[in-house]
From TrEMBL:
Keywords: Signal. It comes from the Bacteria. The keyword Signal applies. It comes from Methylobacterium nonmethylotrophicum. The keyword Signal applies. InterPro entries: MlaC/ttg2D, Tgt2/MlaC_sf. This is ABC transporter substrate-binding protein. Residues 1-27 form the signal peptide.
Length: 218
């Protein structure tokens, strides 16, 4: 069978005979820019883009709607819930674990939507390379507020490149904050108490009124 010119060039390239032959080499795909090949960084970039989009929404409920799908995609919500509950998770019946997991996603999304209320005008700068952290990766982000003050935010990701913890100022763990907040509801009402806490807190956060626009200066 007669080979085409493309097939001849490909066979010469594979065998190493094309070098110095004077024949034009086939076009090659450009190398990816720094950070594009790092899946952990890609996860965090998707989330920061979602945060930036949510900042344009008028109130907490609208911001939560913007964040729902990205957080489901990029956070390991069941793992974060287990970290927040701690060792008592194993004692919770499977049906109640399922109910808690279903309520936790909207709760954490509303929590982040609420935090963004104070973040208007913030900018996110992502370190283009992640670092090893246990079996996963650590991605550094610098958040600069509207006044120009920078704050470090570190994202911990698992082997599947999903976020399992977030450190504010390098020391304040999201998992630790959840554990503190869940302690009293669990102590007083067990799994049902925590479930009621998640649902009520979510409802309260989403009902927050939109901030009033700043009065115009005379």
């Amino acid at each position: 069978m007669v080979q085409t010119r493309r097939e001849i060039l490909r066979s010469l390239t594979i065998s190493g005979l094309l070098v110095g032959s004077g024949l034009p080499a086939p076009a090659q795909t450009p190398a990816p820019a720094a950070g594009e090949g790092d899946p952990a960084v890609a996860t965090v970039r998707r989330m920061t883009e979602a945060f930036e989009a949510a900042l344009k929404a008028p109130d907490v409920r609208a911001r939560a709607e913007t964040l729902t799908a990205p957080m489901q995609q990029n956070f390991d919500l069941p793992a974060m819930l287990r970290l927040g509950v701690g060792t008592r998770w194993r004692e919770i019946p499977a049906d109640k674990q399922e109910a808690l997991t279903a309520a936790f996603g909207p709760y954490l999304t509303a929590t982040y939507a609420t935090r963004l209320t104070a973040a208007t005008g913030s900018k996110f700068a992502i370190d283009p390379k992640s670092e090893p952290r246990g079996n996963g990766r650590l991605v550094h982000v610098t958040v600069t507020d509207a006044g120009g003050d920078p704050s470090p935010v570190d994202y911990v990701l698992n082997a599947d490149n999903k976020i399992t913890d977030v450190y504010l100022q390098g020391t304040v763990s999201e998992a630790g904050t959840l554990r503190t907040g869940f302690s009293e509801p669990l102590q007083e009402g067990g799994p049902d108490g925590l479930l009621a806490h998640l649902r009520k807190s979510t409802e309260t956060m989403l009902a927050a009124p939109a901030p009033k626009p700043a009065a115009a200066k005379p």
